[in-house]
């Protein structure tokens, strides 16, 4: 087992995102997956914002100092996946293909944004864009 931490920065107020992040697993030999709520504004949020990555449009995976965003993040998670349980096998099957991840992620993101609009949630707006608080 390794001590390496792999950070997954996501929107905890999104029920779908929270469910996914709670159930996804990575192999122990790869490292420890650490979940970070993007709304808590951790130090890593500044790094993400400095790179121009909009957390309202995608989750971020930080591994070995590298940031992976949106479809790239979910693709890498699938490759690191422990494949234990039905959900993780399905996750691997769907997102281990970079091309499939690039097609499906925007669809899932649109569903997420619609869900958050229905729930009346505000955007994270980590890039501090004007008039960008609501979905």
TrEMBL record:
InterPro entries, sorted: DCC1-like
Superkingdom field:
Bacteria
Pfam families noted in UniProt: DCC1-like
Query: Which molecular-function annotations from GO does this UniProt entry contain?
Result: protein-disulfide reductase activity
| Protein name per the record | DUF393 domain-containing protein
Species for this entry: Marinomonas hwangdonensis
């Amino acid at each position: 087992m390794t001590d390496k931490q792999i950070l997954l920065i996501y929107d905890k107020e999104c029920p779908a995102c929270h469910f996914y992040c709670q159930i996804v697993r990575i192999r122990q030999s790869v490292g420890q997956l650490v979940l970070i709520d993007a709304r808590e504004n951790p130090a890593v949020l500044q790094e993400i914002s400095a790179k121009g990555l909009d957390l309202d449009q995608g989750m971020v995976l930080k591994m070995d100092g590298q940031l992976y965003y949106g479809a790239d993040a979910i693709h890498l998670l699938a490759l690191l996946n422990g494949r234990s349980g039905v959900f993780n096998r399905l996750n691997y099957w769907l997102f281990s293909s970079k091309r499939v991840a690039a097609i499906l992620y925007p669809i899932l993101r649109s569903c997420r944004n619609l869900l958050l609009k229905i729930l009346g949630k505000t955007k994270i707006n980590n890039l501090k864009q004007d008039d960008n608080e609501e979905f």
